[in-house]
UniProtKB/TrEMBL annotation:
Keywords: Endoplasmic reticulum, ER-Golgi transport, Golgi apparatus, Transport. It comes from Oryza nivara. One of its GO terms (biological process) is endoplasmic reticulum to Golgi vesicle-mediated transport. The lineage of its organism: Eukaryota, Viridiplantae, Streptophyta, Embryophyta, Tracheophyta. It is found in: Endoplasmic reticulum; Golgi apparatus, cis-Golgi network; Golgi apparatus. This is Trafficking protein particle complex subunit. Pfam families: Sybindin (PF04099). One of its GO terms (cellular component) is endoplasmic reticulum. Part of the multisubunit transport protein particle (TRAPP) complex. The keyword Lipoprotein does not apply.
Length: 73
């Protein structure tokens, strides 16, 4: 299962079909969204579930917009 871990305890992983390409790129984009919309949110507390509407909206847009390029479909 593809996963990406940066500093701290937060890990991102993707459930995908075998042989899916560019998953690491997708995980890096998700991490960028996480740093932009979650970590910079003054109301977010580390180790708590991510509840950030802007993160959710932007994540959905990235997945829909770049599904073909990121996942090779």
């Amino acid at each position: 299962m593809p996963r990406l871990q940066f500093t701290g305890r937060t890990k991102f992983f993707a459930v995908c079909e075998t042989g899916a390409q560019n998953i690491e790129t997708l995980l890096k984009v998700i991490y960028e969204l996480y740093t932009d919309f979650v970590l910079k949110n003054p109301f977010y507390e580390m180790e708590m579930p991510i509840r950030c509407e802007l993160f959710d909206l932007n994540l959905a847009q990235v997945i829909q917009k770049d599904r073909v390029t990121l996942l090779g479909r």
